Amino acid sequence: MINIAVLGYGTIGSGVVEVLGINGESIKKRAGDQINIKYILDLREFPGDPIMEKLVHSIDVILDDPEINIVVEVMGGVEPAYTFVKQALLRGKSVVTSNKELVAKHGAELLDLAKERNLNFLFEASVGGGIPIIRPLNQSLTADEIVEITGILNGTTNYILSKMSEDGLDFDTALANAQKMGYAERNPAADVEGHDACRKIAILSSLAFGMQVDFEDIYTEGITKITDTDIKYAKVLGARIKLFASSIRGNDSHVHAMVAPVLIKANHPLFSVNDVFNGIFVRGNVIGDVMFYGSGAGKLPTASAVVADVVDAAKHIGKNIWTIWSSKKLELTDINQVQHRFLIRVAGEIEKAKAEANKLFGEVEEVMVPEITGEYAFITGSITEQEMKEKKEFLDGVVSIIRVRF
Amino acid sequence: MINIAVLGYGTIGSGVVEVLGINGESIKKRAGDQINIKYILDLREFPGDPIMEKLVHSIDVILDDPEINIVVEVMGGVEPAYTFVKQALLRGKSVVTSNKELVAKHGAELLDLAKERNLNFLFEASVGGGIPIIRPLNQSLTADEIVEITGILNGTTNYILSKMSEDGLDFDTALANAQKMGYAERNPAADVEGHDACRKIAILSSLAFGMQVDFEDIYTEGITKITDTDIKYAKVLGARIKLFASSIRGNDSHVHAMVAPVLIKANHPLFSVNDVFNGIFVRGNVIGDVMFYGSGAGKLPTASAVVADVVDAAKHIGKNIWTIWSSKKLELTDINQVQHRFLIRVAGEIEKAKAEANKLFGEVEEVMVPEITGEYAFITGSITEQEMKEKKEFLDGVVSIIRVRF
What we know:
Shape of chain A: elongated
Helix content of chain A: 25-40%
Oligomer: homodimer
CATH class of the largest domain in chain A: Alpha Beta
């Protein structure tokens, strides 16, 4: 019997209990042993819930119990999760977590701690919910140099953008909708400002390139400025607007990373990733393009990934699963040097705007939406972010600027 | 240093040499040791090729060399691959293979042999080329009961169907096209008759359900009967025709499996898998829907998967990676009991055909393509294959019948 403790009895914690209940028999077969939840740590009480008999309020009960082999941290947030997880590793327990903040900030250190002690620190559920992506990156794409990793990593923003596109809603209505459906928090900033996606791409980039990518270094732009008018332009172009979290290694081996809304067309593998689904696109120098798709959040899908990690930890007691993520910092390319095409909308008299655009950007691709008047929209050639910034200063009445990935 | 031998210097064999050449440094880091190709087995000579110094013509040189830890079998076909692989395992060498015929037929036995000897038998490249699917099934989806696994597993037929759809080609022209592009063999039967996809879904089903699924038991229908007229009906429906290889566990826990062309709509995750790409859709009882996408064939993508398995074998010398695939046979549900909707085209006078269809199938959904006359087409409700067979006997002038997945 493998005894585990679950830290946090929220959505994911209760999902873990549920998954072990539903699929206990087949999980036992795969883990080679029965997985038993011995403790659940939570400050709250849950009167009437059968888990009450396992409930403890102090981490020490868990840390002090030599029977506990694996600790499952599903509390979220950096503290006290970090302290608890570090203590667990120091006390000889493997750790499984779904906590992206913790992994983005302390992943390298906690992996090292685990390795030194022949333990494991596993975090499949921290990115892409149920989608297998961490393990494939670590164990399947080992023959490749990763050239690009780009994900739709936040279900809330993808849902909002999908609804704006499908139902013609404006941002506020789509957000309110997402909140009503339980897909967005009351305070949606972490999602809509791109911070959630930023932490997730930091984790994926660290694994893909084997070095520490600090999330604070990643240029991050959310979707709050996207309007229903932008969506109309996307439609005319046969494109969609998606919040991309992206890391790309250039020819000079330098990596740039960013989170921002982009326009993509149907030939991009992430084009069909809609609603609350997530998708992760990986390009390797020999494998070419691969893509992983599934539920990026939700109680059971996320719990499925957590429990799969528990199974892996149970199969590897006393043996570290090697993960290459050095604490050495990867210096990202200055975002100002990165090239994109841009869709620019300018309010005002069309002929004047057109003349200005041509003067500043040379030959541009005009985009016209029949029902929209009083503005001029165009797509630039490939220019650096720096050039963009400089040139837009000379452009009167800029309404919106969106990066174009086609 | 880990010494390996490569059996077969064809497309994939030379790809393995190339991948180890291109990415040798990072592969060494991931494997924890240098991977060295000591021998290449092939009956042919390759004058002028630097691999000549490693070329051997007899398997015994490899089997007798205790320095060889891992044997890479990329010859294809059941024999002599089976004999060579079995001998290698009996002589204490782990085996990596890309050979779907070998794995579909002898997978369970070879896995057992490997397990008994603390060796590994790995075959990521046998299904879906470079797409990570075997390892995710074995190690990532371990918290789930798999309910369905459906793949577009053959790039050649997917290319043909895509070209028929995009360019309005008929089957023969699209096939000739595929042959000219090098995507189809001179003798295309294994691809277009569905045999290749059948072996691959047999492997995936065996892993998903943990028991032996014999490929001979899987109902298999190719794409040779699909015409450009069928494609026109698909378009009118907003659908595409895809060759699906599918295993589904019903509510009664019985599994049915089949390879056949089906009509799907844009809401299916495999809808956008076009050209030579492959996609594999998996539904689990807790994870929900996930999908894996990438190059299903090709020299470098396939070699990438082979080399990733070599890395895994190198990291697990002396330790078996547990794979659940019992040699106990899984009895599939009789295909006649399986329910589908069907698109049926009937030649002849429309009012007569319509009356007949209504008499036999009750309420049906009519499908009309403006430029097609002299035939009547309709989609049935959900009926068993048996009912379909019986009813079509009473229907005059049936032109085509295609299963519908929406």
